[in-house]
Amino acid sequence: MPRRPSPAAPKNDNSRHGRRLQYETLEDRLALTVEISEFLAGNDSGLEDAAGHRHDWIELTNTGASPQNISGWSLTDDQLNLTKWQIPSTPETTSLAPGESLLVFASGASGEVGVVNGELHASFQLSMEPGYLGLVRADGTTVEDAYDLYPQQVADVSYGLGVGTSATTTETLITAGSSATGDGSPAKFRRFTGPNASVDDHWTEIDYVASSGDGWTNATSGLGYGYGSPWQDSTVSLGGEIAGYVRMPFTVDNAAQLTSLNLELRVDNGYIVYLNGREVQRERLPTMFKIGNDWLDANNGQGGLNSRENLSDSTITGSPAVIDLTAWLDTIEEGENVLAIYAANHTSDQGDYLVHAELTAGRAVGPVADSFMVTPTPGLENGAGYLGVIEDTLFSHDRGFYDSPFLLEITTAEPGTTIRYTTDGTRPTLSNGSTYSAGSPILVNPATLSYADAGVVTIRAAAFKEGYFPTNVDTQSYIFLDDVLDQDGAGLPDYSDWGYAGPDWDIDQSIVSSVGPENLKDDLKSIPTMSLVMDWEEMFGNGSNEGIYTEDSRWRNKSDERQASLEYFTADGAEEFQIDSVVEIQGHSSTNRWRSDKLSLQVKFKQPYDTKLESDTLFGNAVNAGESPANDFDTLILDAQYNYTFAVNNTSVQGPYATYVHDQVVADLSNLAGVPAAHGRWVHLYINGVYWGIYNAHERPSDSFAEEYFGGDKDDYLVVKGFEGRDLLHGGTQDKYLQDDGGLASQEAYQELIDQVDDNLASLGQYQEVAALLDIDDFVDYIIIHYYAGNYDWGELNWLASYNSVDPEGRWRFHSWDQEHAFPNDQNAPAGDGRNQDYDHTSQVANDFGEHEFGPTGIHHKLMASEEYRLRFSDRVEELMRNDGLLTPANAQAVWQARVDEISGAINGEAARWGDNRSPDKDGDDWATNAQYTSDHFFFANGPYQSRTDTVIGIFNNTFSPGSDDDEVGKTDWLVNLDAPDFNQFGGEVSGPFGLTMSNPNGGGTIYYTLDGSDPRTPGGGVSPTATIYTGAAVSLAETTQVRARVRDTAQSGTSNDWSAEVAKTFTISQSGLRIVELMYNPAAAGDLEYIELLNTGDYPVDLSGVQITDFSSGGYTFAAQMLEPGERIVVAQDVAAFKSHYPGVANVAATAFSGSLSNSGETVTLRDANNNVLQSFTYSDVAPWPTSPDGGGYSLEYIGPFDADAADPTQVAGDPYDNAANWRASLLEGGSPGTDGSASTLPGDFDSNGAVEQADYDVWRSTYGSTSDLRADGNNDGRVDAADYSIWRDNLGAVAAPIIAAVSVPAPAPQPAAEQPTASAADSAFAEESNETKLAVAFASATEHAESASNASRSAIDQSLAAAARPDNPLLLYSLRRSGGMDGDLDESEPLTGEQLAARDEAYNTLEGKPLESWRPPAV
């Protein structure tokens, strides 16, 4: 993305002259001095202002020859208001130099107007709809430049003077020169001489300085040795090494004008190409290789540095590798760039070496014209311009399940486009695919369009038009389950051989028969579906060339990346997405062909395709999701699972005992304990229309994963993983950990942790140094959960750890990974597996410590030398494994059961696809038996075994000596001696004030407790000054409180043994009385002014901590700790600053904003308590009978119904009042009523509740006169709108309440002719000249003191008179009515108005009818 310019960033000097010549071709702008060169009306993901906000923006450029003072000029989006926003005086605006540009944010009236943080902010926003934008000189009338009616705009695409793409030229960025003459483009070369983080982690970046001190030498493109003319332009030496680094810098001016980018490359032999630090191509190198790996790869798949194929010299020189980098154009920076190449020889051929690169680019050079620019360039020279951006193609049928063929129409809004489509998985282009003909829909029929009649039709489409920017590729998968059940592999395209016994494509018809076709179809819809669509040959080969699935060279086991579309959808269509991505084979042991015929995949969202997957529901709707799963992802693992599956090659101990869910359940336990691990969701996967079974789609703990869960920037995170260890080529050993993200710096940082752990941890100071690097609580929970799960294949391997290297509070955190051997039990003991439910992993670690020294198990064993750590470990065991903790039997089994239930139907699809892949055949019943056996025998006591919980607590308490390593790693008693105190309730929700009692289960000691969240014990073993001795009396808890308590017995030895583990429990005052009572879902005012208001309807204060607002379209909100008193309200705003600016009178506003926005057309909104229980759920609408004015009309949606619902199931209860439109109203006050109950104003006479008594209130009174139901104007609250209420308005006319909404400056009305502005004296004279009958009628109509006691007849007359006479535009009548309030004399209560009186009244009414009231106000009487 372009870097943010300064408010007056200059255009590129080298192109100013050319640009002025281009302006001269635009006759309508020939005389312009300052022009609107570019604007952006929909800034969704681009430039941010200094405060981090994204606004529309406008770029002004001085095209003249002299500086211009544009202060006092105006920008406007209203042709009728040319001075809408005046440009203020700043150094930049008073002297805008020739060729310079000025950036103005069109931020609207949201508090950012004028000069803010040194940047200019206009008072209006730009419309995405066709509109006006003008630049007006200081005289307020001369339009310097304008777009009279700019076209419909596109988000993140700018509009303005773009360089036409109708003509292009090719320019060379890097040349390899001619034969050995040194005239190739400059380059730098460095041979790889061993790991060096300062070089290896940065040499591909633009700003890296390649100095001779670090071993760099000067060269030119075409560098090498042993090749000579015409390929070798300069000579370098590897000096006996295997590989080298090459940097080729190049400069690009006006980068946004580039339209294509191509690289021709000849490298001996393997290479990786980087463009500005990003890998764009890799050939003949192991997929697991990372820069800095210092070993050779001899086909063992561990990522060695050497090329794994040895091409002949003639092959290398014969034809270059032609790499189209056009999709990477947005990587190109304005100015300096660098092409970096890692080039490695094969071990058997070191006699020559070559890196020969030529980089060329296409540049737009067509006429400058008003056009769309897909690369906005604020502050830079404008880019390539397109006549339009074609809207996405629209499919008449959405992806999903279908029972019969149908006709599919594909359209796009732009006329004259060519729509191209494919059905074979390839990307449609102008040269690939078929042309869709309007009026000739595609017959979507699996019998003719799907591979092998497999039952899935995939359509990929894109639209093209000369001069227009094409659409992206849309992909839709249509699944016909009747045909899927007949999948047999016949009729497939050519493919390469795969599988341990040959390719396996079939659906097992015996499973179809035993389950039943209809039941199996339901099972295939019971979990979400994912569909990977790509070039068939790139996945499965063609018989001659391997695809990534069929590749069996072990060094390529993880495969190269290939482009693919990924779709996701549920059967009901409630959840879906489609995203372009790259895919590769994923795994470790499972990738060794063919241990399993069913391989795992990694899908990456990265350049040059979509760079982020955004989905709130993928894991938000997953079982066991825990708190706040991520909704942004740059990768997903489609995990086939390997161990304990139907297709595993271990057909004795594992295959017959398949359960599938082990790995994800351990991750679930970790997430539920608050230790972030991979969230997962089971899906049915189709690959190019072929059903491939069930897969666990889950996250991968990486730098971006850490960014999502811990904050900060992914580039600041270092990630390492468990590794087998290797001897290094240049000396030394790579210990059993390896970089995963962050380069060699991650290994160095992790080694620092290992070094600290190796010191004397019995010292409190040394332990605290470790705690400064390692998140102790997070780590302890991770350790406890994994010892509980019992995976023997963990500790040395199968772990990941992340660390924020720039945050002073950054700590190493470990993440669950690959726990397929968890939950051992004796079901498969007869088959030879001796690891049962009493498995003790601690003995394995201690007795083979060299395998674990550098992993989490080794760190834990060493940390046990610290009494502080031992006590903290005991604390977390108390929390997790006792008193209804997560790892108590029923709770842990419930986590297991949730995953079992998730796939209980889907497993039949898996059995049909893979159950007969290995002998013996397996089916869903076998799986169900296995899952139930684990449930019964691992979690609970059964037969000779205790529950797993009791077993592990016993393991933690046992002492043994492992032998020679006893002094260092011998397991001691890991739990302290004293038992923790007992509570009469171990936390949770309580109603109102709660009396907490505690008891000491030990023979001696004293209970100490705190109520402020602090530990009763200080580090080192002292008593905290905040701790209180428990005396036996109940402790009253009147608000949400964390209670932490320990027993202290100084008779025990040791600073940890004299304290018990703590009981730390939070008591939450019931949040059940919370309700959402107001939504502003489509505000009329500019800016992000949506809000949601909550009310505490209960009798006690409520702690909002953990309360969630969920389910609405693109966001959500979770409250931090904050008390809400009974009857108190709190507003959650879309933009806190904008809300406070607009509603300054609202005091209680949540400190942070909700994410996303509320739907303008209605949607479901759900309120959940801190335990994820539903408190309220409703679906609002903008269609009657729901109030319609809240949809953009300026009003909010307010709840006015009863505060009740079925507490057990508020979303389903019949008659839930929150789903009843009759219980909601449009706010009485325009702008809503945040912070109040929305009832009529407390200001007397303010009948429209806008905070002022004015003419509009009279309209309300008159329109509701006589009503007993609409009582907005019932000023005296007597249940009827009548004349008495008029007097209340009259007596308070002009009064103003303290505003909730900020005052808005409104221009004064235009002056009117004097004859049309009656004054008070004129009205008084006119009144004096009226007949007595008229005076009588007026007096009678307004004499409210008499109306109160009038007979029915006379009251009726009063009502008729007043109702008929009342008109807001009759100042004489209003004045007369006001005067009549002081008139004397009794009126005949029983005498109705005569006809003469009525006529006289009408005469008075007509005297000044139509005269403007705004300029006249009656005098005080």
UniProtKB/TrEMBL annotation:
SUPFAM superfamilies named among the record's database cross-references: Lamin A/C globular tail domain (SSF74853)
Pfam families: CHB_HEX_C_1, CotH, Fn3_assoc, LTD
InterPro entries per UniProt: Dockerin_dom_sf, EF_Hand_1_Ca_BS, Fn3_assoc_repeat, GH29D-like_dom, Lamin_tail_dom, Lamin_tail_dom_sf, Spore_coat_CotH_CotH2/3/7
LTD domain span: 28-229, 1063-1182
Gene3D superfamilies in the cross-refs: Dockerin domain (1.10.1330.10), Galactose-binding domain-like (2.60.120.260), Lamin Tail domain (2.60.40.1260)
Highest taxon listed in the record's lineage: Bacteria
Region described as Disordered: spans on this chain: 1230-1251, 1377-1396
Cross-referenced PROSITE patterns: EF_HAND_1, LTD
GO terms of biological process kind: polysaccharide catabolic process
Name this polypeptide is given: CotH protein
